[in-house]
Automatic annotation (TrEMBL):
<protein>
    <submittedName>
        <fullName>BrxA/BrxB family bacilliredoxin</fullName>
    </submittedName>
</protein>
<comment type="similarity">
    <text>Belongs to the bacilliredoxin family.</text>
</comment>
<dbReference type="Pfam" id="PF06491">
    <property type="entry name" value="Disulph_isomer"/>
</dbReference>
<dbReference type="InterPro" id="IPR009474">
    <property type="entry name" value="BrxB/BrxA"/>
</dbReference>
Length: 144
């Protein structure tokens, strides 16, 4: 009995996707969905570049979950999955310039403009609580 690599990866990453979708974050799986939801967006939008790495599991996703418990939060919540939904992730990264590709990472937009960005190197050595505090500060500053 053999399982295709694609089936294996789908089963393997689904719990990582669920970490965000179960707290109300919408997945953008295609470049078209990215454009539809980010191009000319109004209000505030959080975009998480998800990843299979340990810092995504231990710090990024839990930090986002904790930050979203704050009363003040973004109007829209989206995620793309690096290494899985490659075309969608590449399209989302066009909106993250001038920052280099980084996964995981977290971006906050206000009226379509990138106003706050947390890169992988700012996630790796920080706790989920520290990431949550960083995000809550950005939410309080930009999402009111």
């Amino acid at each position: 009995m053999s399982m295709s690599f694609e089936s294996y990866m789908k089963d393997m990453v689904q719990p990582m996707r669920d970490d965000l979708t179960r707290i109300g974050v919408t997945e953008l799986r295609t470049p078209e969905e990215v454009v539809e939801n980010l191009e000319g967006s109004k209000g505030t939008t959080l975009v998480i570049v998800n990843s299979v790495c340990g810092c995504a599991a231990g710090q990024c996703r839990p930090g986002v979950a904790k930050a979203l418990q704050n009363e003040v939060k973004p109007d829209q919540l989206f995620t793309v999955f690096a290494g899985q939904d490659k075309e969608a992730t590449a399209k989302a990264r066009e909106y993250l310039a001038p920052y280099p590709p980084s996964s995981p990472s977290i971006a906050l937009f206000k009226d379509g403009q990138l106003v706050h960005f947390i890169q992988r190197h700012q996630i790796e050595d920080r706790s989920a609580d520290m990431i949550a505090a960083d995000l809550v500060g950005a939410f309080e500053n930009y999402c009111k």
